[in-house]
Amino acid sequence: MAGMTWEASWSNDRAGKNIRHGNRQSQVKRSNEEKDMHRICALLFSVLFFAVTACGQEVAEQVSAIAGNPIQSHEDVISQLREYLMARAPELPKPVSAQAWSARAEEIRKHLLNDVIFHGWPEEWVDAPPRFEQVGTIETGKGYRIVKLRYEVVPGFWSAALLYEPTDLHGKVPAILNVNGHVGPQGKAVEWKQKRCINYALRGMLALNIEYVNMGELFRPENDHGYLGHLDLVGTSGVGLFYLVMRKALDYLYQDPQVDRERIGMTGLSGGGWQSIVLGSLDKRVSVDIPVAGYCAFANQLARIADMGDNEQDATNFFDGQDYVFLTAMRAPRPTLLINNAEDSCCFRAPLVKPYIYDQVKPYFALYGAQEDFQFHQNTDPGYHNYKLDNRQQSYRFFDKYFHLSASDKEIPVDSQIRTYQQLLVGLPANNQTILGLATELAGRTRRDPIPAPGSREEWARAEREKLKRVVRYKPVTMKHVWAVANTFNRGLASISYRFELSNGLSATGVWFKETDTPEGAPVDIVLDDKGRKGAAGKVWNRGEEVAYLLDRGDQVVLVNLLFTGDDSPALESPPYVPSLFASAVAAVGDRPLGLESGELIAVARWAQQKLNPRPVHVELTGIRTQMAALISAAIEPDLFSSITVHRAMRSLDYLLQRPVEFDDAPDLFCLDLYKDFDVDRLVAVAGPTKVTLEGSVENGPSK
Q1: Which domain holds residue 186?
Q2: In this structure, are 419 and 484 located in the same domain?
Q3: 434-449 in b/e burial notation, b at 16+ Cβ within 10 A?
Q4: 223-257: b or e for each residue (b if 16 or more CB lie within 10 Å)?
Q5: What pTM did the predictor assign?
Q6: What does DSSP assign to residue 205?
Q7: What are the φ and ψ backbone dihedral angles of 15, each rounded to 5 degrees?
Q8: SS3 of 338, please?
Q9: Distance CA 70, CA 519 (A)
Q10: The total number of structural domains that make up the chain
């Protein structure tokens, strides 16, 4: 700046400022232009986005409307299941000789005890001697006393009992094991059971009155009978717990020095009638048996949904080769009185069950010359589900006759001696184990071999695949006929609705969708949802409307309902648990719902390959039930599927125990031995090369 005048300096400075100002103006102008361009782009993107969204929503609405139309009725599904199950119903053979039937009965007895009832149970629990504790005595002053007992069924699981015994005992006396069914909170204290036990004691017999699981002192939400499915899941037959509850009580009577071991009887109503025929046929120590309205033939169950039972009554594999008609015949030649009610308000109406459980069985007692020792009584007063006066007096008559007692058949009035639940309370440990707790405990003992590293799994996967087929009782099925029952072709979307008739007599249903400008031979996606096709059609995930997204990318989509899902479920408005009853029946005859569902999915995937595209199919699904069906299908036929994407995925079968998921909500998942031998990660490994993606997790939701 030396020698420069102030004015020149000012001019130069001003010029520099003007240059900088001009640069700023250019930058502002460009910035404004860029902002305008961004606004225009944003506006165009918004218009495009909303156009695409509106288009996607329109497609989704079309798909949802079409997918929601039933292809078959629930009654159709019930009819198919009845036919399927009836073809597998055991049929009592014609009697040949006492010797032949005794040998066959012994085979059935060993099979049911070793292979079905005690499947998976620790031997030390089954064989443990009875552990009873006397916690109090009620001296009635009426010719009998009531001894309060509690006993350990398996480690940590205690039950309660009341022993009614005459105060004036001479020598060894008969004893009767009294069991009950679904009597609610009163349990063993229910009025008509007290009257019966008091009368047995006043006739000179010991009467042991025990609880039914989840009744009376055993009532807890975690003892719901549906949780027997959770025991099955972890590899321990659920019915085994119920059997041990009554068998330990029989052990106690058998070891009582006051009891005449040749004169032990058993009786009960409803679930107690079921217990009476099961223990009374499988344990020869029960010499005289009176089941009351407790069971029927498997064929009766299929005819009347009201006659289908709880998990213990339709236990896994129990009807695979035999049913309760066989067990009734196994009572021969021991004295047996069957009591059923003419117009039973619950189940097992006398005129409907008698042709099966009595008329068919009489010839078996005749083989031993014991036809007079097998009797049937139809109660008409009051005729509904009951063990009231008429039925009780029938029991007095029958026990008195075969125990050689001389008491009157008439009931001794004891109304004034009925005690309250609180007065008869025995008291169980505050931390008493439950069915669900036992399942969780046994699951914690599960040990599986480690999964080999990728690249060294071929032989391992082959062996695991065969094991899986055995666990889910997988049987391949083929398409007998594919019925195209409806179609649409408008607004850029084509659809055809199908009923897939399968070679086993069952069916699946599905709707095929394709945008009209999508070429033939486009990739195929099978979409499943625990809530059925309609639930899948409107499902929204991170990519928007799921089915609309798949169609928009140029795929063919088949929305499928497998057995026990959507219109392929035997669902009725009343009672709401019909699907779980049929699922139990499927398992009882030796099949598995998961095996049937997997067979259906594999058959539909093969059909898609033959008709739509020969390449492996992609499966997109939502929910834990369809997740397991798809993973098992891919593990059995890994080359059939290219990939599986699971939304709301279950990371481990342990979720079923920890939440817990109730049996009625997912009856197909509670497959005997499934969690003992497999988990989600293992199925994914066996399914290779199928790519499995688990998106989202049900485990993140709240537990019950």
Answers
A1: 105-441
A2: no
A3: bbbbbbbbbbeeeeee
A4: bbbbbbbbbbbbbbbbbbbbbbbbbbbbbbbbebe
A5: 0.91
A6: -
A7: -60, -45
A8: strand
A9: 28
A10: 2
pLDDT > 70? residue 37: no
What interhelical angle do 593-611 and 578-588 show, nearest 10? 100
Contact 617, 692 (CB under 8 A): no
On whether residue 11 sits in a domain, the answer given is no
**Mean of the pLDDT values across residues 563-569?**
94
* Mean pLDDT value of segment 10-23: 38
Q: Which two tokens stand for residue 341?
A: 């009610």
Question: Does any domain span residue 461?
Answer: yes
Average pLDDT estimate for 63-87:
95
At 571-592, the pLDDT tens digits run 876 677 899 999 999 999 999 9
545 and 634 share one domain: yes
Position 662 pLDDT exceeds 80:
yes
Is residue 75 domain-shared with residue 118, that is, in the same domain? Answer: no
Q: Are residues 425 and 479 in the same domain?
A: no
As a whole number of angstroms, the distance between CA 333 and CA 102 comes to 10
Quick one: pLDDT at residue 696? 87
Measure CA of the first residue to CA of the last residue in the chain; give whole Å.
Answer: 85
Same domain, yes or no: 229 and 249: yes
What six digits make up the tokens of 344? 């039973």
- The verdict on 173 and 132 lying in the same domain is yes
| Tokens 């010719």 belong to residue | 143
Answer whether residue 409 shows pLDDT above 90: yes
Q: For residue 576, is it within any domain?
A: yes
